Amino acid sequence: MAATPPEILAEPMPLLPARPDASQATAGVAKPHCSHCHLREWCLPSGMANNGLDCMDSVVFSRRRIKTGQRLYREGEPFKYLYEVRSGNLKSSLTTAEGMERVSAFHMAGELIGLDGIAEGQHASSTTALEDTEVCAVSFEFLTELTTGNAPLRRTLMQQMSQEIVRELRLLVLLGNMTAEERLATFLLNLSQRLAARGYSASDFHMRMTRADIGSYLGLTLETVSRTFSAFQKLRLLKVEQRHIRITNLDRLTRIADMRAHKHPLI
Fold first, then answer.
1. What architecture is domain 7-164?
2. Which of 20, 157, 258, 264 is deepest in the core (most CB within 10 A)?
């Protein structure tokens, strides 16, 4: 049975003037503005000029809700939108030649997703909600039109997209030469850093992904992931209750991870 499509709170609409008059307003259309959004510091680098924010405010973003287990988009679907995660967590995955799912990324609030569709005009991966999630969607076509002739805004958007790509590539390269213990330690440090950067606890958090998802992402079997978690508990590095993690010895966990991960934060 096909998965139920995400609940759409507001359909993407064409580019509107920065200050639409009352006659242009559309009932029921959510129009969150960048200059007032609580995710502003993550969508746009700090120090961006006010006129850049005014330009971003001219775009009508749609807000979409995706229930746990539902897909935001599927591998092979036409690429139309970029998405900023407002709340919740998602995973991206690829289908291997054997027809198996391989998790390629985890996403949390403030992160940009959908970039995999730019190159070929269709999504190279599928993205699924790990919990009830809300995203902002913007038409890539209209976003491209908006940045035409606006070098500062274009540079800002390219910087944001590049940061997401570099973060994922850096983590994947680091994981390629690590032992199972180093991989899991680096993964937990990555989560810790990203959560801390968003104002959450760096040492006490709930993981939305399953251990099978973690193993798929790290290139480890489920048994190896579970055994490594148990080993970390015996070393008193962690306390684990189901998916709830409390890091009790952050310094030692960092030493177990390859030091390159510590020198180059992966947020």
1. Sandwich (2.60)
2. 157
261: which DSSP letter?
Answer: H
CATH topology of domain 176-263: Arc Repressor Mutant, subunit A (1.10.10)
Residue range(s) of every CATH 1.10.10.10 domain in the chain: 176-263
- Nearest to 219, CA basis, from 130, 127, 94, 120: 94
Find out whether 88 and 129 touch, Cβ atoms under 8 Å. yes
Cα separation of 36 and 106, whole Å?
26
What is the distance between the alpha carbons of residues 218 and 227, in angstroms, rounded to a whole number?
14
Write phi, then psi, for 185 (nearest 5 degrees). Answer: -60, -45
Q: pTM for the full model?
A: 0.76
Tokens encoding 180: 């199972």
Residues of the chain with CATH 2.60.120.10: 7-164
Q: Each residue of 16-65: pLDDT tens digit?
A: 223 333 333 332 334 445 555 655 554 544 444 454 445 454 455 688 99
